[in-house]
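Retry 2 of 3 after timeout on previous attempt. Resubmitting structure tokens to design endpoint.
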């Protein structure tokens, strides 16, 4: 569904990604874990068109989208819930969600039943339902994170990129975010998840990749990565069980 092949990306002359390859099959959740500065967010930005890759390819549902503008990649079916939320603070919750469906209104993506999907998004995120008429800027950080995720789902995308959905959230909201990711997975939503909480990410994912200094150092089924001594030592708090 989403295939990254030998991707190189840089900021100016500083190369951050040194030829990474990964695959996100349809209906699966794949997680990319790694320490700060490993290149996780850069990977997401290079996939979604926020930065242009130097070389390599990004293929979405069989279509080469390498280096296209972000809005064209979104039309092709890639939804990006970026690090740091980025909601439209002066618009209502409902209007933020409808903006997520914008390519469906313009005919760039199959329209489907937008009002039904809006209802479904609000059911999936009950906190948003209670606040659907509030301005997004008045929501708590956790609620804004849920809004960014729900807005991504409103595209009716082929693949959702979730970049650090739990960043800065209280533990109770982190649990809520992962419950929602599990529900989306149960509905067959294909996701690439970048997450600082490696244990939680591996619990919800089917497959994982470990990124170190802009290179994939290890990959495999999430279950086997959870039990890998090197992964446990580096990302799962030593030998503690989770």
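Retry 2 succeeded. Sequence:
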């Amino acid at each position: 569904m989403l295939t990254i092949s030998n991707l190189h990306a840089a900021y100016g002359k500083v190369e951050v990604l040194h030829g990474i390859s990964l695959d996100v099959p349809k209906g699966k959740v794949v997680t990319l874990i790694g320490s700060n500065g490993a290149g996780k967010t850069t990977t997401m930005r290079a996939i979604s068109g926020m930065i242009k890759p130097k070389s390599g390819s990004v293929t979405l549902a069989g279509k080469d989208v390498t280096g296209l503008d972000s809005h064209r990649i979104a039309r092709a079916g890639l939804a990006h819930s970026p690090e740091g939320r980025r909601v439209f603070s002066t618009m209502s919750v409902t209007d933020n969600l409808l903006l997520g469906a914008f390519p469906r209104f313009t005919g760039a993506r199959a329209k489907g039943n937008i009002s039904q999907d809006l209802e479904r998004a609000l059911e999936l995120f009950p906190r948003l339902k209670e606040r659907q008429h509030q301005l997004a800027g008045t929501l708590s950080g956790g609620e804004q994170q849920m809004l960014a995720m729900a807005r991504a789902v409103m595209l009716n995308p082929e693949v959702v990129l979730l970049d650090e959905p739990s960043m800065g959230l209280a533990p109770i909201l982190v649990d809520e975010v992962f419950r929602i990711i599990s529900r989306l997975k149960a509905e067959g939503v294909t996701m690439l998840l970048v997450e600082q909480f490696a244990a939680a990410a591996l619990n919800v994912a089917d497959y994982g990749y470990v990124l170190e200094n802009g290179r994939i150092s290890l990959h495999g089924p999430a279950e086997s990565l959870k039990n890998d001594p090197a992964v446990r030592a580096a990302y799962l708090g030593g030998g503690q069980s989770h």
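Attempt log closed. DSSP finds eleven helices and ten strands in the chain.
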